[in-house]
Amino acid sequence: MTHPREEVRAGLQTDRPHSARVWNYLLGGKDNHPVDSEAGEVILKTFPEFAAVARLQRRFLARAVRFLTDTAGVRQFLDIGTGLPTADSTHQLAQRIAPESRIVYVDNDPLVLVHAQALLTSSTEGACAYVDADVRAPERVLAEAAQTLDLSRPVALTMLGIMGQISDAERPADLVSTLMSALPPGSYLALSDGTNTNEALNTAVGVYNGQSANTYHLRSPQEIASFFAGLELVEPGVVPTAAWRPDADRAQEDTADVSVCGVAVKK
Ligand SMILES: C[S@@+](CC[C@H](N)C(=O)[O-])C[C@H]1O[C@@H](n2cnc3c(N)ncnc32)[C@H](O)[C@@H]1O
């Protein structure tokens, strides 16, 4: 938990739930306020499996970054909608395999900015940077990322649980396409998001949206798959998050299929 003076300095809204802090609560973290844990509990009351869904998404991050680093040979990562630091952040996952990996984190939440130091523990061979920016300003994100990443070489763009923060009116597919257009062939997109396929979750998110500083937009699996337009999906395509290259030696948590994910390459 941050010191109250830091919170005032950062202009944090502690009277309304924030996505990053509610997510932190669902993942069992301590960097959240009573409004966030209450909002988390409202979701869990209607849809108790949601904490397992949050854990599932973190495990997809781990499998995707392992694939991108180990199999695809990517050494640069742009992680948008990073969230509050937790175990196994993108730089830890990538640099465990390739210490020279360079990672830029992007989030627009003031508390994530306060905690950004914990994301900047790069290996000496690699680099980590944090950019306080909004995905709805992709040109700015790219300009800041270019201070740390060489955008003439392949980059893996990771967007987990972030497109759902963007309404249809804000044209989420265009944001993804603007970002990917600035990256060279051989770059990848790893993306996951919540689906509107479960009535209990739809109700829970509706209640959350009524009180939160950020609204969440659940979409159909087809709509989420359309974010990969123009890219070549790697096997097994856009699938329920638990089904994307599951670890053979790790038992999956049994939970509802309410999110899909995929990884695709720019040819
Ligand atoms: C559901 S959390 C996902 C965190 C992490 N990617 C994960 O999968 O565990 C969504 C994150 O996106 C951030 N976010 C929401 N809207 C954003 C925006 N417009 N620009 C940048 N980040 C945003 C939130 O602050 C939060 O940290």
UniProtKB/TrEMBL annotation:
Gene3D superfamilies in alphabetical order: Vaccinia Virus protein VP39
Record keywords: Methyltransferase, Transferase
GO biological process: methylation
InterPro entries membership: SAM-dependent_MTases_sf (IPR029063), SAM_dep_MeTrfase_SAV2177_type (IPR006764)
Recorded GO MF terms: methyltransferase activity
UniProt protein name: SAM-dependent methyltransferase
Organism for this UniProt entry: Streptomyces prasinus
